[in-house]
Specification:
four-stranded antiparallel sheet; single chain; Rossmann fold
């Protein structure tokens, strides 16, 4: 995990006038420290998970990031919105239980913990109880979004989260979004699928700093590899905007890319895998770009 993997989502908020910080919590990616799975958020073989304490521990990382943001001159710390996905969405809900000063809204995309396989949460009852407990103390306006084909936290389970949270007095708008791709748990990474929903929520909370969007980020003026299809040219344009480390590979009949990776080597490997699987390419794939440097013929 790297912060660059969420660059498009950060840009979505930045174009609307927000200062966007991407947080990689302790124990994830290259962050040091003890991960929240060591503090109750793990499906162990010998004991029940304690999802509530795991979420509370994870929320402290968000609180630390907010404290850092207060030191930045461009930040208005009276208007803070927290957003998270999956276990980060669950941590965002936990943050609202004891909200830092200035937290005015929160958004959870596919929030939860404890998924071991498709439609298999290790102790769903404990997870539902955690949402119920959070709801007794949370009073920050929230938006929850779950896709219809989320395989981690499927609609029937997500609605139980909603019912438990509301039973304690929690305030959230629950949105059951249409199916997205093969697994809707990854909805957060397809911002076009939730853009209108989040825009409407922020507007309802009077949290629209700008009357219009700031301009889109322009891609560097770098010529694409020769021989790309129209679809490939569009993908290469997106590649140039996305974050490092990254690589773009192609063959005579396919292309593939990988972005936001920890190392150049990982980016190259994943780009080649993507190219080989695309349209079951019959031609050998070659890496053409690494980050923004042409390396192919």
């Amino acid at each position: 995990m790297t912060p660059w993997q969420q660059l498009p989502q950060a840009l979505w908020f930045a174009r609307r006038g927000w200062v966007a910080l991407v947080v990689v919590r302790r124990g994830y990616g290259s962050s040091g420290g003890s991960p929240d799975t060591d503090h109750g958020g793990h499906c162990g073989a010998r004991m029940r998970p304690e999802f509530e304490s795991g979420g509370t521990y994870a929320a402290e990382d968000l609180r630390t990031a907010i404290d850092y943001a207060r030191s930045l001159p461009q930040v208005d710390d009276t208007h803070i919105v927290a957003a998270g996905v999956s276990s980060g969405g669950f941590a965002t809900v936990a943050l609202t239980v004891n909200p830092p000063q200035g937290l005015v809204a929160a958004i959870s995309f596919a929030g939860g913990r404890g998924s071991r396989a498709d439609h298999d949460v290790c102790d769903a009852g404990d997870l539902i109880d955690a949402f119920r407990s959070y709801g007794k103390r949370s009073r920050v306006p929230m938006l929850w979004i779950y896709a219809d084909n989320d395989k981690f936290f499927w609609p029937e389970l997500a609605q139980k989260f909603d019912q438990a949270f509301r039973a304690g007095g929690g305030m959230e708008e629950f949105v059951r979004a249409p199916a997205d791709g093969e697994d809707g748990h990854h909805l957060f990474y397809h911002w076009a699928a939730w853009s209108a929903t989040v825009d409407a929520f922020l507007a309802a909370q009077k949290l629209a700093p700008l009357a219009g969007l700031l301009p889109e980020v322009e891609a560097p003026n770098i010529p694409p590899p020769a021989g790309l299809s129209e679809e490939g040219l569009h993908a290469f344009h997106n590649y140039l905007i996305l974050g490092p480390h990254k690589a773009f590979a192609m063959s005579a009949d396919a292309f593939g890319m990988s972005t936001g990776r920890m190392t150049v080597e990982e980016a190259r490997e994943k780009a080649l895998e993507s190219c080989k699987h695309a349209e079951k390419s019959k031609e050998p794939c070659k890496v053409m770009f690494v980050d923004e440097i042409a390396v192919g013929p």
